[in-house]
Amino acid sequence: MAYDFYPEALAACRRCPRLADYREEVAHLKRRRQETYWGKPVPGFGDPEARLLILGLAPGAHGSNRTGRMFTGDASGDFLYPALYRAGLASQAKATQQGDGLKLYGVWITAACRCVPPANRPTRAELTACREWLAHDLLGLPYLRVVLALGAIAHDSHLELLKARGHTLAKKDYVFAHGALHRIPGGLPLVDSYHVSFQNTNTGRLTPAMFDTVLLEARRLMSEA
What we know:
Blueprint: H1 8-11, H2 17-29, E1 45-46, E2 52-56, H3 64-67, H4 75-86, E3 107-111, H5 124-139, E4 146-150, H6 152-164, E5 181-182, E6 190-193, H7 198-201, H8 208-222
Parallel strand pairs: 2-3, 2-4, 4-6
Antiparallel strand pairs: 1-3, 5-6
Helix pairs in contact: 4-8
């Protein structure tokens, strides 16, 4: 039986009332009125035999919260998926909606927070409450070799999950920095990148060449025994 990456408990999750109310408000008000918005927690997406986990921040209000698939239908996805395609990790460069034919090769994409937060800023308590769902994804991904964190919040969320699982580590020893590779005793290698948000890619803080370099490093680590 295939692992259930979107259990009923996640689909119906309302443990963070602020986020549940906001995701549903956005889905009701809409920006694209001709569409039905997802408006629920967004499940992870990708290859169940993934060796690379890409960990983002949270669904976009009119991207994943609309389409129901990570980094799909907004500017962040318009940057991420062409890069994955160039790296040979995706079947196509476009991600518009569920059922568009996109497949990932050796990659699973998820987020530290599964519901769209106001101003893209989940609280610490909300991230802690959502940690169970990140742990749930990881249980179904036995072949992982490396984690790629998109942004400091994703980076910290991964470290907090390791600590919750009993790893002894000091976060000061694993400071987020674009392009950094962190070797964590007893854990997977952690690679950092600036988030693929429009705020970063539109200003040149993160360029396609910069992200391609990070993906190249992640691909190398995917092959490590």
